[in-house]
C-alpha cells in the first residue's frame, strides 16, 4: 500500500538497423507519476518526456 496512487511504466527499446539487422542501441526507460498526477493520466503522458529525452540523446541534441 506504500505505492497507492502512483502510476509507473517501463519501456524496453531495441533500435535495430533494418537492412543489416544490427543492434544500434538498447534502452530501458522508466517513468513514474507522483501523487499529484491526475488519476486519468494516459501512458503517453508519463512516457512522452522520457522518450523525447532518449531521442535527443540519440541525435546529440541538447535540451
Could you explain the architecture of this structure?
The chain has 63 residues and is α+β, with helices and mostly antiparallel strands. It is built from one helix and two strands. A two-stranded antiparallel sheet has the order 1-2. The protein starts with 7 loop residues before the first strand and ends with a helix. Keywords: Lipoprotein. This is Putative Lipoprotein.
Describe how the helices and strands are arranged:
Blueprint: E1 8-17, E2 22-32, H1 43-59
Largest sheet: 2 strands, antiparallel
Strand arrangement, major sheet: 1-2
Structure summary, number of beta strands:
2
Secondary-structure-based class equals alpha+beta
Mean pLDDT: 80
Give the N-to-C terminal Cα separation. 36 Å
Categorize the overall geometry: elongated
Strand content: 25-35%
Number of helices: 1
